[in-house]
Structure prediction request, 151 residues.
Amino acid sequence: MPDHFPPPGPSWLREEEIRIGHSPGHVALTRPSELDGWWLSVLWVADAEGIVRFRELAPTAGPPPDPPLMRLGPALAGALSGLILEEDGRLAIRLAPVAPPDDPARPWGMPAVIRAAFKFEPLRAATMRDTELAGSVLTAFRRAVESLARP
Prediction:
């Protein structure tokens, strides 16, 4: 498979800049939709050539043994703390890869593009415009992706 894939389309909001190693890149998201109370969007990390692989976002010492979504999920949930609905003692957040890794034993080789689903606290979400809510998710995603490079 190629090292870079094209983005799924233009970002719905202005892309946020991020450093990928020593190169510039950005995070972006598709226009969100809603289904059964879940807020759904696709989020990705790209550079000038297209969507990067998670291994490019890993610490310089190399990727940790756990899959990237195991690290990305808690970081994203933490960055959106207070905005995500808690149901039965669990935060209503779901992350899934858009494309699986070429080799399941090397999950950091998959493209850095994910499907994200959230249920937001109704009172908090009601006070925000759609673009503000999406902007909060995009900024939280950028911060979570930046945290992947930390050992």
In short: The first helix runs from residue 68 to 79.
